[in-house]
Amino acid sequence: MHISSGRWLYGLFLALVTAVLWGILPIKLKEVLRVMGPVTVTWYRLLVSGALLFLYLAASRRLPSFAALGRNGRWLLGLAIAGLTGNYVLYLFGLDMLSPGTTQLVIQVAPVLFLISSLFVFRERFSLGQGLGLLVMLGGFGLFFNQRLDELFSSMTRYTTGVLVVLGAAFVWTFYGLAQKQLLTVWHSVQIMMVIYLGCALLLTPWAQPRQVLELSPLQGWLLLACCLNTLVAYGAFAEALAHWEASRVSATLAITPLVTFVAVAGAAVLWPEHVEPETLNLLAYLGALLVVLGSATIALAPSLLRSYRARRARPGLQSL
Fold it and tell me: What is the pTM of this model?
């Protein structure tokens, strides 16, 4: 099993970088999706990121050795490629039907599913605090969708379909996250991401339409390039964060991602109203979004907080009080 290096401050920084980059990503993608299909956008993002990593590793003579993987490693690599491909494509299909803020909040289920799965795979424990955090998160979702609950449960509208598609993206991302973390026992995070990106791009090639890039405006072209670089830096930071910090702490930090998106959308809607539409949410919905973030962070942090509390209680000075 992979063991974190213990450099928690560096891991925190990398996780924050990931949260910010993921938070602003759907705003850029939404504009590119006006012209380019989700599969083609994903293909470009993965191909460009994978190619840049390949050039970097080749220049530094650090290309990964597939012989070191073994049979189990190859299965894990295949699972990671399939999981990330499904996540990218489904996420964009969902984003095409939803607002950036709603999409980012729903995809917040992914780190929670990743954490819950890691409880079984990495033999962690699910505490009472985590159970309370899960209840807070579910209550937050109820408040967030307060304006459209009837629509979600009574009809299969475009909005409902978008929510279900993004939930599917969150589900398949869990397989990628678990496989990628275990691959860190064999390869460096940069090597893993290079192989996964190129593998995903190869998998999507039959359905990609590269010529759609010629239909983009100059602004959309720059935004597509920014999305490609965002992919490279954000997932690289995420992979490296897992190498230095526990999965639970990384998941808790990533919980702020939806808040970054809501703030970024509000700012972009003021600065570029012709490109970014403001969120049409009431105060109760924003309160629900805050509870989702709080619940997600509680789920991730409850075990370590409980351990810290027990350690303080066990100190001789405290026992005598």
Answer: 0.85
